[in-house]
Amino acid sequence: MGVFCGGFLRDTWARATDRCFRFFPCLSDSDRRSTLFLKVALVTLHLIFPGVLFAFDKDLIDRTREDPWYTAIYLLLFIATLAQYFITSGTSPGYVLDAQKAVDERDALVRRTSLDSKQPASSKNGSVVITVDQNQSGRNYQRSNVTAWTKLVMDLYPPGSSIRNWTCPSCNVVQPPRAKHCHDCDKCVLQFDHHCVWLGTCVGQRNHCRFWWYILEETALCLWTSILYIVYLKSNISKAWWIDVIMILLLGTLSISLIFLLLLLLFHCYLIVTNQTTYEVVRRQRVPYLRGVPQRVYPFSKGLCRNLYVFCCARNSLLQMEPMPSVQELEEKSRPYTCLDVLSCHCC
Ligand SMILES: [Zn+2]
Ligand SMILES: [Zn+2]
Questions:
Q1: For 233-245, what is the mean pLDDT?
Q2: What are the tens digits of pLDDT across the range 37-68?
Q3: Where are the membrane-spanning stretches (predicted)?
Q4: SS in 3 state form for 18-33?
Q5: Structural contact between residues 179 and 188, judged by C-beta atoms closer than 8 angstroms
Q6: Which end of the chain is more exposed for a tag (fewer CB within 10 A), N or C?
Q7: Of 7-21, 46-60, 232-246, 257-271, which range is least confident?
């Protein structure tokens, strides 16, 4: 009887999931399912904290009636944070295959128009800048000409470097400096920072700025919500013990989240002003292109102001590949700082 019931339930479950996958084909992929689950969980968490507050805090409701702007600004921040989360999640981090495709297409165009075939991409301040179509999909790309791309990448490394033509075995593409293959996305990402499970995508060159704004908004929202909880507990404690227990538990969760978000925000501020990535900081000893670079030297830093400008103002449609500094440049960066360097921001 038990075996029969078990088999029946299994068959019913299989039929129900088959029907579900037929209506929503995207759910048949387990990775997509887990990403969707995390997104639903994140939105639910965002709704729980203010929802509980508005359900129990009569003072807040009265205050909203008297002064609606206060609550309106809070709700605006709430919506902006969620919108920023979905925008960041939907932005491509910048795939190497897309950059390669852009380079090869530019090279083919230059050849067709009989222009200088040795300049497939423009050069700006020593970095290679490539215009990329937003809708390109790297995985479906079939390489037609590896020469232009390979030459371009090799020029980004100092002459004689052993990793100049290192090819990713999964993507079968020559990796430029600062790129890394993400095993979750199964693609090489330009200026790879980390793979964010909550976003369901990598954080890389094209979405790092959006990711920073998302953390900032999330931190502000978390701080504001914590203040609202503290105000409630200070004025309403001992009215109903079980409500206070729920409020204290939620405030504890908010406090832990706030500490984590503040640390994350500060860490990414440090990464931005020094032009580093999380991967380069955490795995510095194991990153092939950082071998031989002295400790406390930021090889890609161009100074505080320039780093901030590139991070904030770099166009979204550009994939900017930075060259590895030469030995002379590294020696220059590793010498002790003077007061003048600190004043002119050359120390970072
Ligand atoms: Zn790869
Ligand atoms: Zn990834």
A1: 79
A2: 999 999 999 999 999 999 988 888 888 898 89
A3: 36-56, 68-87, 211-233, 245-273
A4: HHHHHHCHHHHCHHHH
A5: yes
A6: N
A7: 7-21
Residues 6 or more apart in contact with residue 179 via CB below 8 angstroms: 96, 188, 189, 190, 191, 192
Q: Quick check: 293 and 299 in contact, CB under 8 A? A: yes
Distance set, CA 232 to CA 48, 157, 248, 296 (Å)? 16, 58, 10, 46
Do 120 and 107 form a contact (C-beta atoms < 8 A)?
yes
Rounded to the nearest angstrom, the distance between the alpha carbon of 2 and the centre of ligand 2 is 44
Give the integer Cα–Cα distance in Å for 234 and 315.
47
Using a pLDDT cut of 70, give the percent of the chain over it: 76
Distance 93 CA to ligand 2 centre (A): 9
The single residue of 171, 182, 188, 196 carrying the catalytic annotation is 196
Average pLDDT of the residues of the chain: 83
Nearest bound ligand to the CA of residue 174? 1
202 in Cβ contact with 193 (< 8 Å): yes
Q: Is 182 a catalytic residue?
A: no
Residue 170: nearest ligand to its CA? 1
**What letter would DSSP give residue 184?**
T
Residues 245-256 have a mean pLDDT of 95
Is 261 within 8 Å of 218 (Cβ atoms)? Answer: yes
